[in-house]
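Researcher: Please translate sequence to structure tokens.
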Amino acid sequence: MEELYDLWFASLDIKNYTKLELLNKYETKDIWELEFSHLVDCKIDEKEIRQILSSKNLEQAKRDLEYRKQKKIELLSIKDEKYPHKLHQIEDKPAFLYVARKHRGFGWR
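Model: Translation complete:
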């Protein structure tokens, strides 16, 4: 189920910096449950708060999950152990990565 919240959060039209700040404090399911006052306390721009609160619909995330499974695309969060170590070293690292898998034998290609 956490994967649905990750997909929801990754798809939000908010600044990457905001995503990183929230992911530094919360899991995506916890972000889903945050209310307006908590988001204000996190010093998030009001436009982004409205975007977060108005987009709470997991139906699109469910469709995205099915599509990603069919296309063998994995979503990696910055918190994922498979997230590339070198990306952690840059200042404006992406909060999420979409990784396409092609299976030839075993492993990633």
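Researcher: Any highlights?
Model: The chain has six helices and two strands.
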